[in-house]
From TrEMBL:
<dbReference type="Pfam" id="PF10793">
    <property type="entry name" value="Gloverin"/>
</dbReference>
<dbReference type="InterPro" id="IPR019729">
    <property type="entry name" value="Gloverin-like_protein"/>
</dbReference>
<feature type="signal peptide">
    <location>
        <begin position="1"/>
        <end position="17"/>
    </location>
</feature>
<protein>
    <submittedName>
        <fullName>Gloverin</fullName>
    </submittedName>
</protein>
<keyword id="KW-0732">Signal</keyword>
Length: 158
């Protein structure tokens, strides 16, 4: 009996001495269920779980959807968050678009979207452009947004 208690305390001490996240995923239907349990440097504990699925993956490109939930227990308070996102890449992998919507329980609803595209003009020249828009609290204040572009010419190819 004493050895069982001592071994139990030793395992508990090892778990606290070497904190690490526990991550898992498993196939479910056409997608996968995933999760992570862990702790942060500030002493808070967190868990995240969700479901991810390819909606299509063909000549239109690849569209992936994900729904998730997160719970954080910390010394300064607790928080729960629900979210969902869509990620798309075209078949040539030179264009991408993403959209994410989050809702903190008893808190804000946020949204974020971004897109990008690359045009290869020849073997040494390409133009890339993209933009994003996000708002941490939908319906309040102005969104953050940005656009960018880059022209690249290489001597000798990419």
């Amino acid at each position: 009996m004493q050895s069982t208690i001592i071994i139990g305390f030793a395992l508990l001490a090892c778990a606290f001495a070497f904190p690490r996240d526990i991550t898992w995923d498993t196939k479910a239907g056409d997608g996968k269920v995933f999760g992570t349990l862990g702790n942060k440097d500030d002493g808070s504990l967190f868990g995240k779980a969700g479901y991810k699925q390819d909606i299509f993956n063909d000549d239109r490109g690849k569209l992936t959807g994900e729904a998730y939930g997160t719970r954080v227990l910390g010394p300064t308070g607790d928080a729960s968050l629900l979210g969902g996102k869509l990620n798309w890449n075209n078949a040539a992998k030179d264009a991408a678009a993403n959209f994410e919507l989050t809702k903190q329980i008893h808190g804000r609803t946020g949204a974020q979207a971004d897109l990008s595209k690359v045009w290869n003009l020849d073997k040494n020249t390409r133009i890339s452009a993209g933009g994003h828009v996000s708002q941490a609290d939908l319906g309040r204040g102005k969104p953050d947004y940005g656009v960018g572009a880059k022209f690249e010419h290489f001597f000798g190819g990419f």
